Amino acid sequence: MKAILALEDGSLFPGRAFGARGERVGEVVFTTNLTGYQEVLTDPSYKGQIVVMTYPHIGNYGVNEEDVESARPWVEGFVVRELNWRAETDVAAYLAAHGVVGIAEVDTRALTRRLREHGSMRGIISTEDDDRDALVAKARAWPGLVGCDMVCEVTCTAR
After folding, report:
1. Cα distance between residue 134 and residue 129, in whole Å
2. Which entry of 19, 28, 87, 127 is 20 to 30 Å from 137 by CA?
3. Among the residues of the chain, which ranges form H helices?
4. Tens of pLDDT, residues 44-92
5. Per-residue exposure over 33-63, b if at least 16 CB sit within 10 Å of its own CB, e if not
6. DSSP state string for 46-79
7. Within 13 A of 141's CA, how many CA atoms are on the CB side?
8. pLDDT at residue 87 in the model
9. Which of 4, 1, 10, 3 is nearest to 122 (CA)?
10. d(CA 114, CA 99)
11. pLDDT for position 2
């Protein structure tokens, strides 16, 4: 299944969908982690963000309960170059179970350069709509993270 990442500046990054189906908007950021994708997915500080992994191979060791930062993933979307499927519990199934839309086979180097040069941008990942103008408009319409109180959304209810 196809997916598209559209940025507010009009840039489009097509790819292959994995994880949940649908559309998610968020602030598009990148991380240069070589490992630790599971920790990135479940780190509450990524709430409201679509995270781009710059390391090209993600998913090699699957998902396990020992490496989570919290009880669920907090990212709005997940962008990778190549998703590897050699694990008992794979990343795609994990994201699908938690409603996180992912996109693979994206030129993450070009995307990272754009974000490095222009800063983080509003973006949308969609598996439902391939209309460039509509997707860019949706990305631009998202109000962003400034002024949002994400702490109350990601904080544990009990110790």
Report:
1. 8
2. 19
3. 37-41, 91-97, 108-118, 132-141, 151-154
4. 999 999 999 998 888 877 788 787 888 899 999 999 998 876 555 788 9
5. eeeebbebbbbbebbbbbbbbbbeebbeebb
6. GTTEEEEE-SSEE-TT---GGG-SSSS---SEEE
7. 8
8. 58
9. 10
10. 27
11. 96
Dist. CA 96–CA 153, nearest whole Å: 20
CB neighbour class for 125 (10 Å; exposed up to 12, middle 13-18, buried from 19): buried
CA–CA distance, 149 with 159 (Å, rounded to integer): 20
How far is the C-alpha of 109 from the C-alpha of 21, rounded, in Å?
A: 24
What percent of the chain shows pLDDT beyond 90?
66
Query: Looking at residue 126, what DSSP letter applies?
Result: E
Which is nearest to 64 in space by CA: 83, 36, 44, 43? 36
CA distance 68 to 25: 23
| Whether the Cβ atoms of residue 92 and residue 19 lie closer than 8 Å to each other | yes
Contact between 108 and 94 (Cβ < 8 Å) = no
